[in-house]
Amino acid sequence: MSAQPSEHDEPYEVIHLGEHAAAIVPLDDLRRLRAIARHASSEAIEEAEIEADIEAHRAWVAAGRPGAESHEKVRAELLAELGW
Q: Is 62 part of a structural domain of the chain?
C-alpha cells in the first residue's frame, strides 16, 4: 500500500492497494456525498457516474494506459458480464 497527494485540486490523499486506488476522505465529506447520492434523481446519478467514468478514463490515458487490455479480452469480459 502506498499513499500520495491527489494530482487534482481535491485535498485528499490517494492510497493504492494492488491495482485499486482509493481516496482518504474526511468523514464529513463522505457523509455529505452519501446524503447527496440519497437525494439525487436517478438522472443526476447517471450523469455523475458517466462524468466519473470519463474522468477515470482520462487519468488512465494520461498515466500511459497502465495494464491496458486487448480489445478482444475486454469485449469478452463485457459480454460475460451481460451473460452473452
A: yes
* Overall number of domains in the chain: 1
CA distance readout (Å), 56 to 28, 60, 78 = 24, 6, 18
- The phi, psi pair for 70, rounded to 5°, reads -70, 155
- How much is the pTM? 0.59
Q: What is the pLDDT of residues 20-50, one digit of tens each?
A: 889 999 999 999 999 999 999 999 999 999 9
Q: Which residues constitute the domain of residue 59?
A: 40-79
In a domain, 45, yes or no: yes
Whether the Cβ atoms of residue 78 and residue 69 lie closer than 8 Å to each other: no
